[in-house]
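Renewal narrative, Specific Aim 1. Our central claim is that a sequence can be written position by position from structural information alone. The example that follows is taken directly from our test logs and has not been curated for this report. It begins with the structure tokens describing the chain, in the order in which they were read.
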């Protein structure tokens, strides 16, 4: 059986979070995996620097509790490592750490200060023969991934598998989007990356989550749960069920399933939980147009198929909100965004609908619109 352990958690109160981490790590027998020499890397989701209440990033209380659990048991070789969207440099990451509330005692002393990377060969038979991985994750013996539960404009959800994308250094991430422009190819690449990086344990922060236009511009939803597993695909499956979404509608779980990575024997342990009701709101970029619902039931599936063929989601800039910061242009893999007169504009003809621009816009000036594909 592949266990996914659930612990309900009402808030980020440090004492409660620590108790939840203790329950998870006991259930997963984490101490048995470690020796005093094990080099442990903690991989939070730090999409960009944002205060914890915004739910864009893994809450610092989770990181602090995990570090406390490890240090109290004598495991001292710990580094908190992440490559956010944007640059992978000391200066940029320092600003991300500060804005995300990580420069506090109990975390600050463990923040990564090595901004190099190196290639790691992937398992035999993978399409991507190797990946450039940030050094602290590359050198770790034991990676504990700490994702945040969010929706995602391209991949529908951002959970454990998507969190591992932050092991690719800085602006090489848009390059991966350029190499895998279709969602099916991108999520397959994510599964290959995950199998290459191999997180040993995943602990999901779903105390407060993000729904709607995630992963950066959605709305906060209190969901009061944490999940933990040694199998990231099992964890993502349990989390998607918790979100009230259909597993089949999640691209990376379809890819993982076709690669034989999703275990068939997932066992839920710990606290019992029900799927969220109503289900998580989806990002505008992936939700249905509603046209399918207006036709007789029998025709809904073909109608959805036709709409999918005809329409595609593209980013649209609200010029009244745009502050001309250029973050969207910097993260666009197709280099089709230009900043003119302090406003962003794009030529949609080269757009691959990856929504990196929307993801990185600090003022949520970019939305998604479904438009005829002929553009
Ligand atoms: S414009 Fe936005 S969605 Fe289109 S390719 Fe560039 S980053 Fe991706
Ligand atoms: S990231 Fe947002 S605010 Fe900055 S230039 Fe692009 S659209 Fe404008």
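The sequence written for that structure reads:
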């Amino acid at each position: 059986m592949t266990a996914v352990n659930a612990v309900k958690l009402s808030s980020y109160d440090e004492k409660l979070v620590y108790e939840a981490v203790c329950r998870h790590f006991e259930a997963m027998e984490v101490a048995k995996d470690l020796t005093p020499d094990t080099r442990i890397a903690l991989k939070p989701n730090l999409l960009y620097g944002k205060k914890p209440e915004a739910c864009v990033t893994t809450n610092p209380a989770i990181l602090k509790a995990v570090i406390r659990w490890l240090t109290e048991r004598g495991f001292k070789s710990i580094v908190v490592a992440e490559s956010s969207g944007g640059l992978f440099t000391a200066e940029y990451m320092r600003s991300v750490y500060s804005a995300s509330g990580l420069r506090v005692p109990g975390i600050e002393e463990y923040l990564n200060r090595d901004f190099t990377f190196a290639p790691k060969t992937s398992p035999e038979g993978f399409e991507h023969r190797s990946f450039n991985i940030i050094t602290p994750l590359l050198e770790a013996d034991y990676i504990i991934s700490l994702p945040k539960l969010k929706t995602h404009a391209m991949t529908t959800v951002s959970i454990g598998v998507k969190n591992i994308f932050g092991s690719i250094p800085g602006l090489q991430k848009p390059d991966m989007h350029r190499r895998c422009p279709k969602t099916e190819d991108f999520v397959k690449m994510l599964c290959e990356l995950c199998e290459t990086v191999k997180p040993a344990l995943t602990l999901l922060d779903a105390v407060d989550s993000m729904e709607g236009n995630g992963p950066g511009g959605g709305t906060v939803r209190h969901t009061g749960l944490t999940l933990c597993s040694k199998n990231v695909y099992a964890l993502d499956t349990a989390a998607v069920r918790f979100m009230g979404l259909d597993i089949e509608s999640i691209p990376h779980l379809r890819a993982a399933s076709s690669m034989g990575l999703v275990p068939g024997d997932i066992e839920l342990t710990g606290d019992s939980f029900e799927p969220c009701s109503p289900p998580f709101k989806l990002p505008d970029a992936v939700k249905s147009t509603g046209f399918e619902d207006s036709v007789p039931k029998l025709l809904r599936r073909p109608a959805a198929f036709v709409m999918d063929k005809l329409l595609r989601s593209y980013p649209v800039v609200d010029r009244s909100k745009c502050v001309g910061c250029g973050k969207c242009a910097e993260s666009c893999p197709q280099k089709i965004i230009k900043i003119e007169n302090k406003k962003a504009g794009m030529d949609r003809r080269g757009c691959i609908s990856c929504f990196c621009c929307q993801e990185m816009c600090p003022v949520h000036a970019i939305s998604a619109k479904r438009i005829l594909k002929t553009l």
